[in-house]
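Annotated sample (chain length 493).
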Amino acid sequence: MFAGQTGLTYKDFIVLPGFIDFHPSEVDLDTQLTRDLRIKKPLISSPMDTVTEDRMAIAMALTGGIGIIHYNNTIEQQRDLILKVKRFKNGFITDPIVLSPRNTIEDVYTIKARFGFSGIPITEDGTRNGKLIGIVTNRDVDLEKDRTLTLDRVMTKDLVTVREGIPLAEANEILKSSKKGKLPIVNEKGQLVSLICRTDIKKHREYPDASKDSQKRLMVGAAISTKLEARDRLEALIEAGVDVVVVDSAQGNSHYQIELLQYMKKHYPEVQIIAGNVVTMDQCYNLIKAGADALRIGMGPGSICITQDTMAVGRAQATAVYQTAKFARRYNVPVIADGGISNIGDIAVALAIGASTTMMGSMFAGTSEAPGEYFYENGVRLKRYRGMASLEAMEAGGAKRYFSEDLDIKVAQGVTGAVVDKGSMFQYVPYLVQGLKQSFQDMGVKSIPELHEQMAQGKVRFERRSLSAQAQGTVHGLYSYTSPVVGASRREK
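Output written by the structure step:
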């Protein structure tokens, strides 16, 4: 199927059904992220500034995947985002949002709408440097109709606090015995240092598949460019505890990336490196030879990417994934299918043709954990989503991946758009995982390694689809319908 001269993408063919003799719950989605790193779910959030920062990375790690934090920021900002993820496992919120006694109940509801929580510490001056004097929770404001009331009139002043340096286990016991939802940690001056939340402690029990390092901290990745500043950035990221580094180039087969890979392997041999992006065997060979521990596959298939139209360079995504995975398998190097994935079926197909993991941008950009604010357009709740080669993103630093940072004239290879609200990752990822398990059941395989083995042996079969077959394989012939994912009404004409 892939031997011809026509490039194929995920919708151009379909996997034929296998034999079912097991339940979807028996499917194991554990997979290789790189040569030496494994994760429980084959899902990665893309290093884009409208997709992955600390909240997304934490959600991805808790649900079994991993997030790659973007580099459209300063070295210090990216390092701090990594630290927030690595510190999360301790159960301590090290940068809690605080308010002053002069703020109002309306401010509490604003924070709740934006961040999803309403338990907020109150300090004398409304900063984390001020002395802690109270806390406001749902119980304090739920029954108050006047939202202009200042917080000094409703906040809880009788606080249970503990001193800085207390072990997590001991703090958990105090939280349990006090029956409080939050436990503030203060220093000798009474200043708020951090916060422990009962809900966060419960998450550690609720997410047994969480991606964790050898020290039981959540795993997180970070992107760097091939520019000279990447070496300083790399040092800061490694000090912060990053688990895997993605060398983020739109066209990875370059002298710049090969030189950087060789530098990284010489000075930081313990760090796992994902190189790319590539779409051909020749590109794969050069990066594997330079030391890549995994390859990121895709050049132009993303929903906000116009590289193939603008540059006339790239490759159809399914062909790219199949050919590169087939080649990289000789060297025990996993490949990541990056771009062009819009639903569960696309994830399943990418894995079936050789990918070990899949990287998503638009699918995760509309979630509450993605950076940015929601807005409404024609009654639909949306979030901004932009390509790292859009003019907006390049002005913020995204041009580093396109070798155009210093050019006076910038040619956009991406656009800025909007995606529909998909709710929280903590509901969305389980939905994707369950659908993926059912897809594996239909294919008759119980794991990703088994799927790859049977594909290589010709036991997993594929069939090309005509355009009319593709149209018939999805919703058709209806006046209107409701999306099963986000609940948005659609109309066909």
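Annotation: The CA atoms of residues 465 and 471 lie 10 Å apart.
Annotation: Residues 487-493 have pLDDT under 50 and may be disordered.
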